Amino acid sequence: MPSSPASPAAADSSKLKTVVESHGLRFHIRTKNAKWACTLQDRAAYEKQKAARSSSSASVSTASSSASSTVSTASQ
Question: Taking the complete model, does pTM exceed 0.90, yes or no?
Fold first, then answer.
């Protein structure tokens, strides 16, 4: 039985890791009275992007949070 170089599960895991490192994985949580928008992002990738933004000449100074995930609430 020939063996494949990468299993489908490993390929899916690699794709997920790429998405989380590059864009972050966004999802919403809704309950009866509240709604949250969440972003799951790799901490090392976030810090790398943050460093690139702060060293950029086009960077604008803002009072932003250094958290790697964001949770916001909005009432409906």
Answer: no
